[in-house]
Write a structure and sequence with these properties.
The protein is α/β, with parallel strands linked by helices. It has 2 domains: 158 residues, Rossmann fold (3-Layer(aba) Sandwich), CATH 3.40.50; 125 residues, N-(1-d-carboxylethyl)-l-norvaline Dehydrogenase, domain 2 (Orthogonal Bundle). It is built from 13 helices and 9 strands. Strands 1, 2, 3, 4, 5, 6, 7, 8 and 9 form a 9-stranded mixed beta sheet that branches. The longest helix has 30 residues. The relative contact order is 0.09. It binds nicotinamide-adenine-dinucleotide. Nicotinamide-adenine-dinucleotide binds next to α4, α6 and α11.
């Protein structure tokens, strides 16, 4: 069992650290917010007075922070205090360029590094069923795997530095765009006098099939577990979807790649969030689209 430091004990990091404790690891935790520290302490995480204290003596350091700038600054700090040769794993969802910079800083400090963003949300974090998308060397991946297995059920090595973040945002760009396409189809079907169930029965077994339709249907009825059946309570909040869509657009701009559907979907989620729906499930964008004026 490993000596693990965990920085960022929020909605995701808190239950992830708790699962490491459950698996028998010794976990030293730190967060900037008192309430997060208290909740984590109740699950067996040993709360330290600073990030430096938490990482001193750690074989593995996990960060689970809001955005790239937090990761860059937290890593700059922790790299001066963690033992040489430690493995530093960032599980936050951040921009690919920051992820690569973090790897470079880690390597310069003599550490093993891995970017390992997750999918599965707070439910997956609590249940230990997250998917980890990992970028880094084989050595870093092999060393991280047993700890990641305590927090997730699929651990995928996507490639070198930044490949985990690339996989995460490419996947979520597909999700964001297919959800909007699916919502548009249901809104159009309503106006054409086609029932939602009939559209579902056809599209779910035809070429219109996607996860947005069959697992997360944006209208109530066809998929009873989808957020549409509980007033679009998340699930996956629109503000988080917008964050990931924006990351995909930053990566596209940085790589010089045209992603016109991704760009349009990003704009629609931005409007949805600006209209006060950031806390709604992202599939609630269907109600927004129903009210939108036809284009052209
Ligand atoms: P959160 O805001 O609940 O938690 C982030 C925590 O980091 C906060 O408690 C904050 O106080 C702490 N923090 C910030 N700077 C710190 C520092 N320097 N040292 C220690 N702690 C610090 O956010 P979350 O929902 O847990 O998400 C974390 C990451 O996971 C984000 O990058 C998010 O995009 C990603 N993610 C979230 C979900 C989700 O459903 N919530 C799903 C997949 C991925």
């Amino acid at each position: 069992m490993a000596n693990i430091a965990f920085l960022g004990l929020g909605n995701m990091g808190g239950p992830m650290a708790a699962n490491l404790v459950k698996a028998g690891h010794w976990v030293a935790g730190y967060d900037l917010v008192e309430a997060q520290k208290q909740t984590a302490a109740e699950t067996g995480v040993s709360i330290m007075g600073s990030a430096h204290e938490a990482v001193a003596g750690a074989e593995i350091v996990v960060t689970m922070l809001p955005a790239g700038r937090h990761v860059i600054s937290a890593w700059a700090d922790l790299l001066t205090a963690a033992p040489k040769g430690a493995l530093i794993v960032d599980c936050s969802t951040i921009d690919v360029d920051s992820a690569k910079r973090a790897h470079e800083a880690g390597a310069a400090a003599g550490m093993l590094t891995l970017d390992a963003p997750v999918s599965g949300g707070v439910g997956g974090a609590s249940g230990g069923t997250l998917t980890f998308m990992c970028g880094g060397s084989n050595e870093a991946f092999d060393k991280a795997k047993p700890a990641l297995e305590a927090m997730g059920k699929r651990i995928v090595h996507c490639g070198g530095a930044g490949a985990g973040q690339a996989a995460k945002i490419c996947n979520n760009m597909v999700l964001g765009a297919t959800m909007i396409a699916t919502c548009e189809a249901f809104a159009l079907a309503e106006k054409l006098g086609l029932s939602a169930q009939a559209l579902f029965d056809v599209a779910s077994t035809s070429s219109g099939q996607s996860w947005s339709l069959t697992s997360y249907c944006p209208v109530p009825g066809p998929v009873p577990a989808s957020p549409a059946n509980r007033g679009y309570k998340p699930g996956f909040a629109a503000s988080l979807m917008l964050k990931d869509m924006r990351l995909s657009q930053e990566a596209a701009a940085s790589a010089g790649v045209a992603t016109p559907l991704g760009a349009e979907a990003t704009q629609l989620y931005a409007l949805f969030v600006a209209a006060g729906h950031g806390g709604d499930d992202f599939s609630g964008v269907i109600n927004f689209l129903r009210g939108a004026q036809p284009f052209g």
